[in-house]
Amino acid sequence: MSLNFGISNISKGNHDSYKDKPVSKSLPLYYKDKSPFHPRNPHSKRKQKVFMLLKGFIYSLGLYIVYYLARNHLFSSSDSSHVFQIFNSGTPSWKTAQSEVRQAMLESWHSYEKYAWGYDVYHPIKEQGENMGPQPLGWMIVDSIDTLMIMDCKEEVERARKWIKDDLDYKFDYAVNTFETTIRMLGGLLSAFHLSGNDDVYLDKAVGLANSLHGVYDSATGIPYSSVNLKSGVGIKNHMDGGASSTAEAATVQLELKYLAKLTGEVNWWEKAEKVMQVLEANKPQDGLVPIYVNPDTGKYQGNLIRLGSRGDSYYEYLLKQYLQTSEEEPLYYDLYRESVEGVKNRLVRKSFPNELTFIGELDKGIGGPFSPKMDHLVCFYGGLLAVGATNGLSLDEAKQQKWWNEERASDFKFGEELTYTCYKMYHDVAPTGLSPEIVVFNEDTTKEHDFKIKPLDRHNLQRPETVESLFYLYRLTGDAKYRRWGYEIFQNFVKYTKVVNKHGEVSFASLSDVTSLNSDGSPKYKDNTESFWFAETLKYLYLLFDDENKLPLTEYVFNTEAHPFPKFHTNDHLKTGWRRKIDESVKPKIREKPVKGGAKPQIPQAQPVDDSIEKEVESALKENPKLAKDDKEGKKKKLNELVKEME
Ligand code: DMJ
To answer: What intrachain disulfides are recorded (predicted)?
Structure first.
């Protein structure tokens, strides 16, 4: 069967302005073919000497002019990389860089195919696979198939499709993590469906999986439980953290459920996704910043820890991406996103010493509490998010022409660039591997010499995607070749230090347990695992970073948090937000959009009729369960005070 990988569909909308500029081949003809300066009297010695001197001078002048023109004309183009490559023959063209990434994908994938086909986990050193439960979940194959499609690896896709069709079955007695299964499996299948040109094999499996996940939303509030039994479809409360779900996990299922609803017409998926957002928003997070846990029984945040790293990250990501997914037709999500950006800027951003690297820290005790200068590599997705949030997926130059362009967007974009530079430095400055550790602690002390330090337990590298993800966004939006150069440097270090070659010369890639040192024989300190996001995200974003065809244009696609691309679509009477938020007067001025000269009018959020159905549901859930009500006396009191205030 011939498969349509949809590559032609995904290569639309080339933006010449940010493609590599070709090298000028138009040097004046006379420089190449014939010198205009022939000696007039070759027999006069004196004249000959003068002529030689003159000739030397003119040649030098000519060479200087050529150099000057090349430097000022060619190097001033927005993408000087191509010229840079020509003048530095050791550096490959970006097309070559892209095929090197594809080659790494194929080598890594073939090793998985040979030694662990179908298994959920791959140990490339032992050359063994294993499953997480009694049957495979397709963790590797489903997460990776769209990368293989994008890279046009036809035979590998064919084998993966066959496995999905014949061997993948989600109905078995095993508890899976709701969020991971949604973003990797559901996301992977939906994206494969689209990129394959609507091959039903993928959608059928996606629907089957979604049906197995449905029970997680049956909590008192609609906030999903952290796990679910695939066979019974019953949600399972977290055994730790007082039963709380991670905020990022609860708020990172929306793109997947909404796209599923769009494809199947099953509105209930859409409603489940929206309900979560409505319940979270009813907490009225201060400055748009949220604690990293939420209780599915009460819908209230639990604990105070605020961060953009683990358990917090993709909450912020999906605020913006829900707005982009529905073609910017639901400003509610943009407002929530913008508030959170202001909150981050005001509460979480600092500069390191001595090099003033912009970083995002954490608030262990919430707003008003002490600031911790710790930053997970996971936070590095935020640079790209800020950039695409500022331009809505248009190139920066195009965005600046729009009437909605304003100071906030310009500042968000700059912040995104600065943060991405910091993330690049988390690779570049780490000897000997040039690879980032999992976590760094930034330095604000003016007596110290280094911008960040790495604690012993944080030295590992799981080949995570976040930095190259941001480099991809920033290159697409600016056309600035430095993002490609940084990405290529990171890629080369992945190849140099995470590549494993067995005795047959077969290649695979592994995580590292320590990026700051090597074994005594000079070999890297491998961790015997290849994460599925190495295939699904890291190599995909690198491939797209070096892509000159604008595959998967950001004006038409939104990537889920696991890098699975979904096409944007429009809302309709059934598929729309369906709820309104209560505007808190205290945050109004902060989300007001300041217009630039000649720009759009400020969009001041209007107070909306209050939909108090959530409060009512929470109240009745509390009534039904007196234990919960007792546990949450404080929360109830606060809620009542808020309601009274509102009535006043
Ligand atoms: C991925 O599974 C997703 O990007 C998720 O949102 C958080 N991080 C990992 C990769 O680092």
So the answer is: 380-423
